[in-house]
């Protein structure tokens, strides 16, 4: 396998992923929109590039001199992705790993899998641009709500903010599981497919935020009046079966969210 990887978006998820890939022997190029991060990236062994999807320039050609491109951007800029794809088509990139979100699914008050109904939103359009392109292979990973380390759910609703839909169910995934899953996709060479990635358990929003706030010693949560509960429960069966993956943080109610190590 070619050991060169480019990560477009070395932020909360992309940076620790880059660190793990470097530990695994990969040479990693990483993008940021802030030149002030260059020294940090270099110290971590990441080759830094200043790239903005909103203003892609010719410099992205050098960034794309890798076999695998991982896209870890929150941007929903369809036109920016169209321009990016034009550069990918002319580059050495043969495989794209696109980090998406389970927010693409319609809330149908049921369990949803990779074949369930999708919303008509920009993220779905971007997924389609990538997966339908025959110039490169694409795998899409739809992550549930992200948490871990400095991103603690007990801090999500602060200062008395009302938490809506309290009897709905949460779909969450820890940063460690995200990184392990992405690593395993690369290791096993699984392309041209779509995966949901989500912890095994789905407590109600009421139970989850009562616990996560209490674990941090924060104020008790304030919930909206429960009316017309709308939810979706994300199935992770495909990724567990095909990748033979066992989640590190599988039971969302079984650990203390106040721990500095979580």
TrEMBL record:
Molecular function as annotated in GO: aldehyde dehydrogenase (NAD+) activity
GO cellular component: cytoplasm
Gene3D superfamilies: NAD(P)-binding Rossmann-like Domain (3.40.50.720)
Domain of life: Bacteria
SUPFAM superfamilies in the cross-refs: NAD(P)-binding Rossmann-fold domains
InterPro entries linked: NAD(P)-bd_dom_sf, NAD(P)-dependent_oxidoreduct
Name of the protein in its database record: dTDP-glucose 4,6-dehydratase
Lineage: Bacteria, Pseudomonadati, Bacteroidota, Flavobacteriia, Flavobacteriales
């Amino acid at each position: 396998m070619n050991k060169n990887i480019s990560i477009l978006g070395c932020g909360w998820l992309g940076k620790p992923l880059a660190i793990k890939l470097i530990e695994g022997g990969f040479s990693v190029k990483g993008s940021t929109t802030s030149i002030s991060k260059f020294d940090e990236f270099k110290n971590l062994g990441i080759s830094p590039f200043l790239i903005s999807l909103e203003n892609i320039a010719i410099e992205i050609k050098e960034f794309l001199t890798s076999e695998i491109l991982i896209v870890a951007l929150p941007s929903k800029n369809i036109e920016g992705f169209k321009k990016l794809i034009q550069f990918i088509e002319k580059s050495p990139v043969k495989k794209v790993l696109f980090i998406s979100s389970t927010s693409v699914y319609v809330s149908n008050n049921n369990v949803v899998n990779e074949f369930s109904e999708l919303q008509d939103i920009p993220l779905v359009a971007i997924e389609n641009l990538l997966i339908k392109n025959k110039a490169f292979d694409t795998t899409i990973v739809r992550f549930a709500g992200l948490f871990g380390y400095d991103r603690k759910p007990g801090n999500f609703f602060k200062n008395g903010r009302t938490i809506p839909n309290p009897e709905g169910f949460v779909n969450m995934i820890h940063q460690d599981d995200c990184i392990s899953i992405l690593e395993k996709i690369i290791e096993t060479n699984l392309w041209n497919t779509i995966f949901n990635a989500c912890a095994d358990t789905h407590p109600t929003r009421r139970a989850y935020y009562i616990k996560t706030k209490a674990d941090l010693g924060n104020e008790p949560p304030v919930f909206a009046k429960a009316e017309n509960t709308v939810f979706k429960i994300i199935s992770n069966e495909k990724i567990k079966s095909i990748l033979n993956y066992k989640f590190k943080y599988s039971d969302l109610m079984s650990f203390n969210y106040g721990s500095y190590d979580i």
